[in-house]
Amino acid sequence: MYDRCTPALAAEVSLLAAMLGSLHEAQNVLADRGVDLDIKTVRTIAYRYAARARLVQQVERTTFADTVAGRRVVISSDGGRLRLREPKRGPKTKKGRRRYTGAWREPKVLIVYVVDAEGQRESRFAPFSDATLKGPDAVFALLRTYLQRLAITQADQVLFIADGAPWIWKRVPLLVHALGLTVAQVHELLDFYHAVQRLGQVAALRKDWSAKARTRWRTQQRHLLLQGEVEQVIAAVQALCRGRNSKAIRTQASYFIKNQSRMAYAKLLAMKLPIGSGAIESTVRRVVNLRLKGPSLFWCRASAEAILLLRSYYKAGRWNMLKRMATSPLALLET
């Protein structure tokens, strides 16, 4: 027994808190099922359930039953947005409430999934997804834990794919080294659609071009990227560095230069591996945007961390794994 309720009730309350749009909705659904709980009790049960699961996740080191041996694994990470309720210095309001700021913060989200020989996600392998507000090092520590427990060194190919965020790419080599992966196993790829978006931004800076000319130039460079002619694309961007927007165009050119080694789209297409990071974009939307981001939504950090964990596992189809962690004897021993 935890929090004066059975494991089944705690799991149901926590699932509804993750599944529905708010704790009030969870309370109403429970009431319809004959379970009359006030909103504070619903919150306490769900948040403590998440805390126990996270605790067991941190201390447990056994290998997952799911295997990636001989498979092709895709790993991606990105950031979302939500607003945190942080204390603000100064006098209280007329109603005696403490003032707070609602600053935007970026939860870091990760996903690990497997693709088949045709590059399609394997339906028999539920992805691993997680999120945290503790920053880049924390999300990469989580990622390392997941990959170690998956015995990632037994995978056939490992693809890291993401946008051009420096916080991701400067940590990938360190993670690869820590995991003991070989150079032949690992591929790093910049999301193709982010690269194309950058090409569009370059074309937009040429104010002397018509809309049709910008579209034609972007399409030409897009085809070159797919053909593996990255150097030609960089040369084409650099050739536009003139006029009042030359500095902005040089900034865009540096983006392609820095990520040149991560633009092997022709090679990855030939290997039938993904060249887009749609999986992580979708995960951010479903885990963060549809539950924690919205008008007048302000979260305490601990509350946001709890919902991020619960919803990540629910949306990844791994709720039973979270239930096992939250009801593990390790949770009782550690608490």
Brief overview:
With 335 residues, the protein is an alpha/beta fold.
Describe this structure as you would to a colleague:
The chain is α/β, with parallel strands linked by helices and 335 residues long. Helix content is 52%, strand content 13%. The strands form 2 sheets. The chain has a 5-stranded mixed beta sheet with strand order 5-4-1-6-7, sandwiched between helices. Helix 3 (39-59) crosses helix 13 and helix 7 packs antiparallel against helix 10. The longest helix is centred in the first third of the chain and has 21 residues, at 39-59. The chain is globular, with a radius of gyration of 23 Å. It starts with 6 loop residues before the first helix and ends with a helix.
Alpha-beta classification: alpha/beta
Q: CATH class of the domain at 72-190 and 275-298, please? A: Alpha Beta
Helix content: 40-55%
Q: Would you count the extended β strands for me?
A: 7
- The ordered H/E elements are HHHEEEEEHEHHEHHHHHHHHH
Average pLDDT figure: 93
Beta fraction: 5-15%
- Rg from Cα: 23 Å
Q: Would you spell out the secondary-structure blueprint of this structure?
A:
Elements: H1 7-19, H2 23-32, H3 39-59, E1 72-79, E2 82-87, E3 100-105, E4 108-115, E5 128-132, H4 136-149, E6 157-162, H5 166-169, H6 172-179, E7 186-190, H7 192-204, H8 211-226, H9 230-239, H10 246-258, H11 265-270, H12 278-292, H13 301-316, H14 319-326, H15 329-334
Parallel strand pairs: 1-6, 6-7
Antiparallel strand pairs: 1-4, 2-3, 4-5
Helix pairs in contact: 1-2, 1-3, 1-13, 3-13, 3-14, 4-6, 7-8, 7-10, 8-9, 9-10, 12-13
